[in-house]
Design goal:
The chain is mostly helical. It has 2 domains: 1-143, no CATH class; 179-245, no CATH class. The protein has 11 helices and no strands. It has helices at residues 3-7, 10-40, 45-58, 60-77, 80-88, 92-105, 118-151, 154-161, 166-192, 198-219, 229-244. The model is unreliable at 154-160 (pLDDT under 50).
């Protein structure tokens, strides 16, 4: 049995599916509790139902991006693990980057199914799970203390009014750094002759589509489009890869 067949085995589906089902039940449990709490404090049931319907509707298109991530990773990691990671606590940009970095660290040329081994998959899965759990743990133990410190802080209020605090700035800087590193590697490979122009073209198309979404959301008061920006730019980038390839 090939490694990919093992990663898509019924046992893997059972393990990952059980965890996903548990998380889904927890979500339903708290949704019911929240709805009952809203009724108890006198909120309008009609407005709450509209809110639930609107929220469910606006999650459909952004979830396409998550589905694309599962499909992209399933070719080398099987379907159950990407399904689990991107359904529970994973983020699309995080999972793909960490999986790629872990694959290269164990000696693979990338997320290649033909080179994948059980040891490599174990390392990749462990790294993907281990690195992302700290935000959850830190939220459990430190969020209450953190909120208590910034609750009455005039400095934090002025930061909020000016467009965000150090956390927003740090996250933006980190994201720009990651994008610059990837785009820079594509340009470097192309200039050196070891790569082609396709990754650069895809990055340009995806970036242009994202810019259009941001322009419409911020300049044309179409804020609801912001929820679809990642999925839309990903779909445009993948379409560009197919057309240019």
């Amino acid at each position: 049995m090939s490694i990919l067949a093992q990663l898509n085995s019924p046992v893997m589906y059972l393990i990952c599916g059980t965890i996903i089902a548990f998380v889904a039940l927890v979500c339903v449990f708290f949704m019911i509790r929240a709805y009952k709490a809203g009724i108890s404090i006198g909120m309008d049931p009609v407005k709450m139902k509209r809110t639930i319907t609107a929220s469910a509707t606006f999650t459909l298109l952004p979830s396409i991006g998550i589905l694309l991530g599962v499909i992209a990773l399933s070719g080398s990691l099987g379907t159950p693990l990407p399904w689990l990671r991107l359904s529970v606590i994973g983020a699309l940009h995080y999972e793909t980057q960490v999986a790629e970095a872990a694959a290269e660290a164990v000696g693979l040329s990338g997320l290649n199914a033909t080179e994948m081994t059980a040891e490599a998959f174990t390392t990749i899965a462990l790294l993907m799970s281990f690195c992302i759990m700290w935000g959850m743990l830190m939220s459990v133990f430190f969020t209450k203390r953190y909120l208590g410190k910034i609750g009455g802080s005039k400095k934090s209020e002025s930061s909020e009014n000016s467009g965000g605090g150090i956390g927003d700035i740090a996250m933006t800087a980190m994201f720009i750094g990651l994008v610059s590193a990837y785009v820079g590697s594509y340009i470097g490979d192309f200039v050196s002759g070891s790569g082609d122009w396709l990754p650069i073209a895809v990055a340009v198309v995806a970036g242009a589509v994202m810019a259009v979404f941001i322009y419409l959301a911020e300049k044309k008061n179409l804020g609801w489009l912001e929820s679809f920006s990642i999925a839309g730019s990903m779909i445009a980038g993948m379409a560009a890869a197919v057309l240019f390839g």
